[in-house]
Amino acid sequence: MRPTSLDDVAGQAHLLKPGSPLRRLASTDGAASAVSVILWGPPGTGKTTLAQAVAASSGRRFVELSAVTAGVRDVRSVMERAREDADLYGLSTVLFLDEIHRFSKAQQDALLPGVENGWVTLIAATTENPSFSVIAPLLSRSLLLTLQPLTEDDLGVLVDRAVEDPRGLGGRVVLAPDARSALVRLASGDARRALTALEASATLAEDDGEGLPTVTEELVATAVDRALLRYDRDGDEHYDVISAFIKSVRGSDVDAAVHYLARMIEAGEDPRFIARRVIVLAAEDVGMADPQALPLAVAAAEAVQLIGMPEGRIPLAEAVVYLALAPKSNASYVAIDEALADVRSGRIGRVPPHLRDAHYPGAKRLGHGKGYRYAHDGEHGVVEQQYPPDELVGRDYYRPTGNGFERDTAGRVERLRGRVRGGSADGA
């Protein structure tokens, strides 16, 4: 069912406007102005389809390589042949390289001479962010075109076409409206998934002798069994889901947080990775608003280590629900980052003499420890004394919020600062 021309491609309308790079590539007289492109998008959105449609429409020599099986020798062989065809016959070559992110730096380097000298017009496809997976020289010499997941309307067109087209089911079955909706919904923007599910469902449809077999919603559910997740633990979907998970917990949306937790678990994400993120969330986003959040997160991580999966999902869910519902404060996180920023910028200063180590021989002669006041001798265990270097006297890093436990500690922080800095004699 793969389209043979750009006009038959469903979806990606933003890349197929008149005069667009792909349209110029596909034109028979566009060789001189052709530019290499990198197609970036999720699986099943048409990257290979677009490349093959360009090749079929342009009339140029088309060579296809897969980064899974090709090596540097294969790339150099294509480049040598492309240079000879260009020099001897004036024939331009389109090189389609699938899954370019699987190529090493050395393998991608082998593409540069052909792209720089115009021996080939490269069409590379990747499901991973090219900014991280494609070398900078190649990225700068190519146009980056981003493909979007297909819409429900796009998928509906593909499914209807596959039912009627002789290359597909050729009208041998009837697709019930609810079954069509189910196929579109389960595909999650992936054309291959929609067509595979349609084909599997059609094989289950039985001829009852009263007309064409009908593909029903029940047959679709039986064929597909479950909604498969598009989730690559090394790709963008991984980062998108974990980002949404973190932001849902931070934003106190317990239901969304549990949803994203379930997506990661169902997709086979390493539960230890999830547990580590939960610990970071407890410290960074709940913090001192609920000091019990961090011990609970650590306990959940230890439980996952002890009992494994699938039972580990239960302590993970308990920790996630607790964190999502807990009061939030990033005051500790902000405090250490501000302190680090001061240190890195040179705001350090000498340790005050009365706080320096006075235990080694000769330290007292240098004045170390002289004038130090023992905190336990003071009322409430607090004495007036300078603790930071001179440059940082009066610098406040920790600013408690009014949330949760910090609502009660905020006043204590101010009282302690006043007593230590000499501005107040109130109790601690």
Describe the protein in words.
With 428 residues, this protein is α/β, with parallel strands linked by helices. It is 48% helix and 7% strand. The chain is built from 18 helices and 7 strands. It has helices at residues 21-26, 47-58, 72-89, 105-109, 112-116, 130-133, 136-140, 152-164, 177-187, 191-204, 217-224, 236-250, 254-266, 271-286, 293-307, 313-325, 331-344, 405-421, and strands spanning 37-40, 61-66, 93-98, 120-126, 143-146, 174-175, 214-215. The strands form 2 sheets. A 5-stranded parallel sheet has the order 2-3-4-1-5. A two-stranded parallel sheet has the order 6-7. The longest helix has 18 residues, at 72-89.
| Helix residue percentage | 40-55%
Task: Tally the beta strands.
Answer: 7
Count of alpha/pi helices = 18
Strand arrangement across the biggest beta sheet:
2-3-4-1-5
Largest sheet: 5 strands, parallel
Q: In angstroms, what is the radius of gyration?
A: 32 Å
Question: β content, as a range?
Answer: 5-15%
Q: Overall pLDDT, averaged?
A: 86
* Separation, N- and C-terminal Cα atoms: 76 Å
